Amino acid sequence: MTAAHPLDARLAALLPPGSLYTVGGRVRDEIRAQIEGREAPVADSDYVVTGVRLDDLLARLRPLGRLDLVGASFAVIKLTVDGQTVDIALPRRERSAGPGHRDFDVQGGPGVSLHDDLGRRDFRMNMLARALPSGLLVDPYGGERDIRARRIDILTPEAFREDPLRMLRAAQFAARFEYALTPATRAAMVEAAPRVTSVSAERIADELIKLFTKAERPSIGLELLRQTGVLVYVWPELLEGVGVEQNEWHAYDVWNHGLATLDATPPGDLVLRLAALLHDIGKPRTKQGAHFYRHETVGGEMARAMLMRLRFSNDLTEVTEHLVRQHMYVADPELSDAALRRFIRRIAPTNIERLFALRAADIVGSGLPKRDDSNERFQARVWEEIARKPPFSVRDLAVDGDDVMAALVRRGAAPRGFRGDQRVGAALQWLFEQVTDEPEVNERTSLLRLLETYLDEAPAVSASET
Fold this sequence. Notes:
This protein is an alpha+beta fold. The protein folds into 4 domains: about 10-140, Beta Polymerase, domain 2; about 150-235, Hydrophobic Seed Protein (Orthogonal Bundle); about 240-390, Orthogonal Bundle (Hypothetical protein af1432), CATH 1.10.3210; about 395-465, no CATH class. It has helices at about 10-15, 25-35, 55-60, 115-120, 145-150, 160, 165-175, 185-190, 200-215, 220-225, 235-240, 255-265, 270-280, 285, 295-310, 315-325, 335-345, 350-365, 375-390, 400-410, 420-435, 445-455; strands spanning about 20-25, 45-50, 65-70, 75-80, 85-90, 90-95, 105-110, 130, 135-140, 150, 180, 285-290, 290. The strands form 4 sheets. The protein has a 7-stranded mixed beta sheet with strand order 3-4-5-2-1-8-9. Strands 6-7 form a two-stranded antiparallel ribbon. Strands 10-11 form a two-stranded parallel ribbon. Strand 3 and strand 4 (about 75-80) form a beta hairpin. Helix 2 packs across helix 5 and helix 12 (about 255-265) packs antiparallel against helix 13 (about 270-280). The longest helix has 17 residues, at about 350-365. The protein is globular. About 35% of the residues are buried.
């Protein structure tokens, strides 16, 4: 039986009997939950309404909430009620009109059957509907059978050629559900692999995000993309690690080590999972015998380029690159307190937890037993130092740029109304170094005294020279 959505009953009350169906992923997941003996999720719901004209449908829905009509070649109504938005559509059929995933001739309306609408979807397991409010399952293409068999199957051999985005969806579904592609589906994916270049970078990224954030073992999807030839058109850099052996500290080649490290991270944290996959991406290009000199630097540059190519956000790209560049840190539990603070400053407190999680996954991904407890002892010291809340950036100083500018004006080293130059930043950085060594001096009187000492000894630079 369906897991009721808050809008199910309200929609059914406004529409003609027998016209309302929930479709696609919600129905699939309800069947999966029933088979696996767990509670069905209360998920977002897409609806299809049969036998009703668009103008009549709009009139019936208008009392419920805000309506927005989207779609150039077919109409989808976005209904927003109490801050929640669902899609409601009339049945439609599609015919491919070109190589891209948006190149379709679409017909929609009350003259199109529900079976036709279901048949245009990506895989049989998603070609499902459930009548509301009766809960009757509509399954003309054997979707429930595929779910029970834990398989992913297409309806026609042209499925991937018509919509190449489906190849990325096949990979993320295979990983999320741990389902296997049928031989015919795999063969069709191999044949259509080059067509993935017609899919926009943003759409590819969307599917990869689902793969990394929702799958327990994203490696299943990436390995499928590699075996079917799709990955070479998406992230060919990953394939450079196939067969590249490492050293005695690793049981796997670079490719399989990256996958194992990825799988060792928890779902949900996209940045951490991307960093885990890409942390050793620079190794094949830096291999010298058993060594990979500066692979973290080269890898950071490669990670940035790969993420930017798929239009990932700047913030996500920067943090991922930073983690890749820093993953080779030395976990020395005997570091001095000042050195420990410089480590925290270099990584930034906001990135520490992810970096430690990356190191833990890297160890698991090596395929060999952990050598000792040095990482744990080092991490304990780092957390203790963070808890003490010493200054970790110039912004944490008890003085600021206004204090430095005022001191320069008082000394006659800058004119009245001075707005700052490179001397201000240099002075603050010097003060920061002092409090890194001795956090207890980070109070205003002490820092102002140190500032005078610094300005006494600093080379004279006038504002006109900066």
